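INTERNAL AUDIT FORM
Audit reference: QA-55
Scope: verify that the stored structure record matches its stored sequence.
Auditor: D.O.
Record contents follow.
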Amino acid sequence: MIDRNRLALDEQEVWDETFPDGFWGGSPHRDGPHLRLWSYGYICMLELGRIPEPVTEVLRDDPNIAEMLAELIRLRRAARRIGE
């Protein structure tokens, strides 16, 4: 889905915590790869304050995920306003 090596070191740490058995470990057939990436992006937003660019690139290209990504970005902006 994405090259883990394109992620910053702190993003890689979150990746490893989110997917301890690898991206395809567990039950990916139940989630779907885009939902897994969306979840990872949301976790990064909460823990790091940003969504990794490689994740945004993949999700932006999928029209079915576009609305979830837009919501994620709205939540990110709201979280920033609360923190100000």
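Auditor finding: record pair retrieved intact. The CA atoms of residues 68 and 74 lie 10 Å apart.
Action required: none
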